Amino acid sequence: MNDSGDRKRIIVYAGDGVLARDVIFCSSSDSRRDGLLGRKALGPEEGVLLKMPAGRSGKAGFMTSIHMLGMRFPIAVAWLDEAGVVVHSVLAKPWRPYYASPRRAGYVLEVHPDLLERIPTGKELRWERSDQAQL
Questions:
Q1: Number of structural domains in the chain
Q2: Structural domain that includes position 28
Q3: What is the pLDDT of residues 73-114, one digit of tens each?
Q4: Is residue 14 part of a domain?
Q5: Does 3 reside within a domain?
Q6: How many CA atoms lie within 13 A of 133 on its CB side?
Q7: CB neighbour burial string for 24-60, b if at least 16 within 10 angstroms, e if fewer
Q8: Is residue 1 part of a domain?
Q9: Is 128 exposed, middle or buried (0-12, 13-18, 19+ CB in 10 A)?
Q10: Is the pLDDT of residue 24 over 60?
Q11: What are phi and psi of 94, to 5 degrees?
């Protein structure tokens, strides 16, 4: 697991298997703000991994919250600690103003809603850049 560079494509793994192959790593304020907004749909292998900024990393609640205003489809959302362990996950529905984790988080993963059952609390995730994957 590494911080792969802003807007780089990564592969996210859950346990021994691939969770999603086409995930965009978002570490800048612009890329985090854009996230999945403007998309009409999300493929089963697509998503974004948001790296919280230093002032928000490790925080809970509003500091690592997401919104679904302007979104056209539901997504599975997982908040991860700095080690990549899921501390909270939820199905986020379109046009809801606020979703937050009650636990501290350093990353927020947004993926296809069908993947929610694969990202329960306590699950360890890891990732690597797509161009460096050892598949």
A1: 1
A2: 8-132
A3: 999 999 999 999 999 999 999 999 889 999 989 999 999 999
A4: yes
A5: no
A6: 18
A7: bbbbeeebbeebbeeeeebeebbbbbbbbeeebbebb
A8: no
A9: middle
A10: yes
A11: -55, 145
| 2 in a structural domain | no
Three-state DSSP class for residue 95: coil
Q: Judge whether 13 and 125 are in contact, CB under 8 Å.
A: yes
Q: What CATH number is associated with residue 18?
A: 2.60.120.1140
- pTM, rounded to two decimals: 0.89
> In what helix (H) or strand (E) does residue 18 lie, and over which residues does it extend?
strand 17-26
Q: Give residue 63's pLDDT band: very low, low, confident or very high (50, 70, 90).
A: confident
- Cα dist from 88 to 29, 46, 72, whole Å: 22, 20, 23
How far is it, in rounded angstroms, from Cα 78 to Cα 47?
11
